TrEMBL record:
Keywords: Aminopeptidase, Hydrolase, Metal-binding, Metalloprotease, Protease, Zinc
Aminopeptidase N-like N-terminal domain sequence ranges: 101-178
EC number(s) from the headed UniProt entry: 3.4.11.2
InterPro entries according to UniProt: Aminopeptidase_N-like_N, Aminopeptidase_N-like_N_sf, PepN_Ig-like_sf, Peptidase_M1, Peptidase_M1_dom, Peptidase_M1_pepN, Peptidase_M1_pepN_C, Peptidase_M1_pepN_C_sf
Top-level taxon in the UniProt lineage: Bacteria
Domain Peptidase M1 alanyl aminopeptidase Ig-like fold stretches: 436-548
Identification of the protein by name: Aminopeptidase N
Gene Ontology BP term (one): proteolysis
Name of the gene encoding the protein in the UniProt record: pepN
Similarity comment: family membership: Belongs to the peptidase M1 family.
Reactions catalysed: Release of an N-terminal amino acid, Xaa-|-Yaa- from a peptide, amide or arylamide. Xaa is preferably Ala, but may be most amino acids including Pro (slow action). When a terminal hydrophobic residue is followed by a prolyl residue, the two may be released as an intact Xaa-Pro dipeptide
Source organism (scientific name): Fertoeibacter niger
Coiled coil stretches, renumbered: none
Segments forming domain Peptidase M1 alanyl aminopeptidase C-terminal: 553-868
Database matches in CDD domains: M1_APN
Amino acid sequence: PSPIRLNDYQPPTHLIDQVALTFRLDPQATRVLSEIRFRPNSARPGRHDLRLDGENLTLIVAAVDGHPVTATPDATGLTLPAAMLPDGPFTFTAEVEIAPAANTALEGLYMSNGMYCTQCEAEGFRKITFYPDRPDVMAPFRVRIESDLPVLLSNGNPLGQGEGWAEWHDPWPKPAYLFALVAGDLLAHSAAFTTASGRAVALNIWVRHGDEGRCAYAMDSLIRSMRWDETAYGREYDLDVFNIVAVDDFNMGAMENKGLNIFNSKYVLALPETATDDDFGRIEAIIAHEYFHNWTGNRITCRDWFQLCLKEGLTVFRDQQFTGDMRSHAVKRIEDVLTLRARQFREDGGPLAHPVRPDRYVEINNFYTATVYEKGAEVIGMLKRLVGDADYARALDLYFTRHDGEAATIEDWLAVFQDTTGRDLSQFKRWYTEAGTPRLTVTEDWQADTGLFTLTFAQHNPPTPGQPEKGAKVIPIALGLLNPNGDEVMPTTMLAMTAMTQSFAFQSTADGWQQVVAEGPDRVPGAVSTRPIASILRGFSAPVLLERDTSPEERAFLLAHDTDPFNKWEAGRALAKDVLARMITAGATPGPDWLDALARVAVDDSLDPAFRALALRLPGEDDMAQTLHAAGHVPDPARIHAARRAMGDAVARRLAPHLPGLFDALAEPGPFTPEARAAGRRALRLAALGYLSRVDGGARAEAAFRQADNMTEEVGALACLLDIGRGQAELAAFESRWGADRLVMDKWFTLQLLHAAPEATAQAVERLTAHPAFDMKNPNRFRAVIGALPGNHAGFHHASGDCYRLLADWLLKLDPLNPQTAARMSTAFDSWSRYDADRQGMIRDQLRRILAVPGLSRDLGEMAGRMLG
Ligand code: DPP
Ligand code: ZN
């Protein structure tokens, strides 16, 4: 199939004033009746055919203003020729039949555990009825549902309900991708919310019977999100009801349908005994994310799917701010950067690299990526850093007033910043249009006689598929200076780099260290001073690879003294990666300096336990493979694995005297609470238990597993045991305790795969996929096993190539049923070019094998093709 291109965008030929839908639900034969008020779009003068999208629909009857339509649908839709359309407004009516029970792709209207639900983003509505399925066609919807099921939901406000029917009306014009319908035997966990201006909103979380007791945390997160958006962005909710439904079979995390969010049950249901602290954190973040879409996505939507980052980047940015406010900005930032590097930098450095705003796609579902979401959020963070908080707030206010009710573009988004600040953002826009992670190198110069300290930055923007050459990016570089005593002598200062190479000079003055003009008549003589220590790219102020020739002593100094928590962590991280890289490439052993520095952080009670837990986490194997590859090495997965284990053992021996004390002191008194402070203590306690298990043979972890009264510690202790090759009895106990709980059992599947020995990983896949509870049709279960495979780096890349073959086998099995999830999971192969020729050949063989399969989906076909290059 040929790609769809941004440059080919044309406004719609017709707009819609009103949509009325009636659903007569039936698993095999649902009838959908539609009545759509069209009018010609004045932006497209002249008379045009009206193209309606439609896939897998059986057309029963259609008419224009009551005159039967004789045109017949093709495989992707129905064209109403201009000749049969009136000059002015007209009503198109249609009746179609669809089979939700046969819909395994989970796109459009489908069934999950006897309940009907929908997923229409990006292009699922065309599997429900004939419609111009594009986001720049927005309309108010009225929906009637006919079914014997007790709970019948759609978007907007309820109009009425009776025996076997319900009606809904959504007054806010919306694109079809935000349409939703749910019908099932559900129970609600309910609460009430009053908006700042006094609107009473009924809040409901709808779940299957038996799950109603697991909704309290999601509801609490929703209420906090609604309040936060009022105070942080001045955005209020705009309907009388807000419904959330939890669904077990869902391709994504959740979906922001207007007034009726549909969630993967994994991101709703939680009790202390079934959900980990990470689960609680993700529930809070995703509930917030989908709620925030009500303004950034729904009230203002995207003109076309190339603009996906307009809603996703901004909404991720907003949910990150929210989590920072709720928990800890420092910890949140570190976690976000870890994810960004692991997922987005990886994507940006391989064959799947694409700009934050792509300019072509074959299948839009393949562009719900780390680049669009996470780098999209980073770009907004940079914009905010460059213009400052006050102008960011003014620009957002302008965005909301100027574009409310519209389908907007990245150009519109940048224009509100330009109009607010008077800045020219044409260079900044490259962040949206050019792919690849910039490399930023820095060199330092110190003139003792003049007291001038100069930092010279050079940026390199590597080529990516289809983009050999790139211009200089605008890079905000947050900088602080410390003196050798460890005192901060220049607080965080934002430097804006705009050239390929650029110097910034600093001098000690009567008012402390300041940026100065390096040369020329403005130069004032500086005060006598000593050379400062620079803390560069504080808070990870730009998504770049910073390359800095720093001594281990300077890194240890920053780890001990930096006032910026991100850079403090980053210094420790860089030290650990240097040590590990030398262990892998030169067979070195970890030196006492690094181990001592790590031990000081571990026992420093003045530091947040969550921060200490992050500092104790060793660099991951995939991260090391990526880092070594970037440094010009060919990573050997087996060596990386062995070296990382040796590093863990060395840390365990060095920390051994402190570990029992740490572990015991961090036990939480009283009942479990999911809040951040307690979660941070548990994270450090489990980090200590992990190292302790390497020196005590697992005795404490066994006891911790038995005594755990929450899932965080139960699964955490089990992971410690599996990590040292034990835990078989505990796995069996876990299975017999949780066998009936799908969400908990997903953890059981994943753990075994992640902790399988490299040579036993393929067998683990075979054993787990043969388990009676493995169900490839359930995306969570498929992700729990097959999706976890690349997380076991040494196993996945074992020299036998068995796991490559197994992954390809499973992708090909899933593709006919659920192409979207198959395509998503195929990205495990995107790092092939890092490895040796044998592995490259084996992976490429599997990609070629996939590509050769007749009838392969557009989704998986596009991915395999792009990865082969
Ligand atoms: N728009 C959804 C989200 O990111 C994904 N389909 O929230
Ligand atoms: Zn989103």
